[in-house]
Specification:
mainly alpha
Length: 87
């Protein structure tokens, strides 16, 4: 193989090597973005599970008159709660 052809092959190999490194960097970035989304979904799922457990506990342990939810917290039946419901 002549020197000119070897030079072209070396140049092509370097270009391919550079492109591979660029793609690896892009893959690493996307992988990190993916794991961020996965963590956010897991956190949201855990929060939903906590809320469901709170509802189950409420249904099991709270008296029947405790029926109002405000701001994610159960309220004992209060006159204000009745007034809000009446409105």
């Amino acid at each position: 193989m002549n020197a000119k052809r070897q030079g072209i092959l070396v140049s092509e190999n370097l270009a391919l090597y550079k492109r591979i490194r660029e793609l690896e960097a892009e893959l690493a970035e996307r992988r990190e973005e993916y794991f961020v989304v996965v963590r956010e979904r897991q956190d949201a799922g855990a929060r939903v599970a906590e809320l469901l457990e709170a509802i189950r506990n409420h249904d099991e342990y709270c008296p029947d008159e405790c029926e109002y939810i405000e701001g994610g917290r159960w309220l004992k039946e209060q006159p204000e709660a009745r007034e809000r419901e009446a409105d």
